[in-house]
Amino acid sequence: MAIERRKDNKNRVLKEGEYQRANGTFEYKWRDKKGKRHYIYAKTLDELREIEIDVLRDALDGIRADKNDITINDLYYRWVQLKRGLKHNTLQNYKYMYTQFVEPDFGEMKVVELKRSDVRAFYNHLSDTQHLKTASIDNILQFFIKY
């Protein structure tokens, strides 16, 4: 006997943790490692699934969903503690570039508030104000691009 899956009002099969609410919007429920419940909401199922992907990616990267106040600096220092496999000089170069150019002002931004346009504006700031060359800026932004 087959188990019948939950479906939305358009007859689409809902994944585990997905629910359609009475008002037609969608909800995704999950528990973190400590057992705390979390919820996200979206108007459409497609929007909800995009958000789910971000939640799962953050969970795999070790970013806590309940930490809405984590800054770029917090994330960077966590990355430095966990990162393995870089040569000593490469890691030292990343640390220098980060503390010299990112940490003082841009590093104070909250990760949840960060937008692509913010990174682009920071890139332009480094080019215009700090007069850095493109290769230097690319080295600084390796943290945002690769990791």
Fold and architecture overview:
There is one protein chain. It is built from six helices and three strands; from the N terminus they run βββαααααα. The protein has two domains: 66 residues, 2-Layer Sandwich (Double Stranded RNA Binding Domain), CATH 3.30.160.60; 75 residues, DNA polymerase, domain 1 (Orthogonal Bundle), CATH 1.10.150. The model has no long low-confidence stretch (mean pLDDT 84). The longest helix has 17 residues. With 147 residues, it is mainly alpha-helical. It has a three-stranded antiparallel β-sheet, covered by helices on one side. The protein is elongated and about 60 Å long. β1 and β2 form a beta hairpin. Helix content is 46%, strand content 10%.
